[in-house]
Amino acid sequence: MKKIVMLLALVAFIAVSAVAFANPAAPAGDLTVSEMMKSNKKPPVTFSHAKHATAVPDCKTCHHTWDGKAAPVKCSECHTGRKSGKKDNIKNTSHKKCKGCHKAMKKAGKKTGPTSCKACHKK
Ligand code: HEC
Ligand code: HEC
Ligand code: HEC
Ligand code: HEC
């Protein structure tokens, strides 16, 4: 009996660690997105990654090329800041993704993030 309990505990532990290691930890605090840009004409944009990971449960809504295993690659690695082929620059990319979602949710009457320039590009 004792052995079975130990075995069950071990199986449970392995299952929990497998889940824990399968997903890279999402950043807990705020992120300054302007680190993605080399030249900053506008004040930096900071957003709470934690709030977004809760409000937007599917990581791939934003990390759209992520394989779901290793840490996701930074947007700026691909969206290089210049219009290159199919990949849009980081400004248009961010506006489409960030502002796009906020606008759509606002229209649907849901609680969401800012849509005005100053509310995102805070001094
Ligand atoms: C939902 C948030 C959000 C809103 C609203 C928003 N932006 Fe941005 N913007 C970003 C992000 C994120 C970036 C890319 C990271 C960065 O450069 O800080 C960016 C980048 C930029 C850039 C290029 C970066 C630079 O400093 O040169 C400019 C210019 C810009 N935005 C202007 C505007 C203007 C003008 C408006 C209003 C019409 C606006 N943004 C509204 C989030 C936003
Ligand atoms: C609303 C959009 C959004 C959602 C949803 C989201 N992320 Fe992110 N995440 C970002 C942005 C933007 C960055 C900053 C990336 C950059 O600087 O290019 C980031 C950064 C990260 C980083 C740090 C990457 C680095 O190299 O610094 C990790 C890890 C991460 N996210 C994991 C996750 C996981 C796991 C989830 C799902 C639970 C998730 N994210 C959901 C937008 C999002
Ligand atoms: C591994 C490379 C890669 C990474 C990392 C990446 N993207 Fe992309 N992204 C692409 C490519 C390639 C396209 C164009 C083809 C497509 O739609 O899949 C694209 C398209 C997009 C589009 C549509 C652009 C348009 O003009 O309609 C948005 C928005 C976008 N990405 C946002 C993001 C954000 C935000 C991040 C970071 C959280 C990110 N991407 C990370 C490669 C990448
Ligand atoms: C798929 C939808 C979605 C996308 C994509 C998204 N947001 Fe949001 N955003 C939300 C929602 C929902 C909230 C409200 C969350 C809350 O208050 O709990 C929010 C809140 C915010 C806020 C106010 C709270 C905070 O985080 O400080 C900021 C700023 C913000 N978003 C910036 C951004 C930026 C910058 C990006 C792109 C990198 C982005 N958002 C992408 C849905 C989205």
Walk me through the structure.
This protein has helices at about 1-20, 50-55, 75-80, 90-105, 115-120, and strands spanning about 30, 45-50. The chain has a single domain (about 25-120), classed as Cytochrome C3 (Alpha-Beta Complex), CATH 3.90.10.10. Helix content is about 45%, strand content about 5%. It is mainly α and about 120 residues long. The N and C termini lie far apart (about 65 Å). The model is unreliable at about 5-20 (pLDDT under 50). The radius of gyration is 19 Å and the shape is globular. The protein contains five helices and two strands. Strands 1-2 form a two-stranded antiparallel ribbon.
* Estimated helix fraction: 40-55%
Q: So what's the overall shape?
A: globular
Radius of gyration, Cα only, in angstroms? 19 Å
Unreliable sequence segments: 4-22
Number of helical segments with 4 or more residues: 5
Q: What is the total tally of β strands?
A: 2
In whole angstroms, the N-to-C terminal distance is 64 Å
Task: Jot down its keywords.
single chain, mainly alpha, Cytochrome C3, 44% helix, two-stranded antiparallel sheet
Give the gist of this structure.
The protein is mainly α. It has one domain: Cytochrome C3 (Alpha-Beta Complex), CATH 3.90.10.10. Helices cover 44% and strands 5% of the residues.
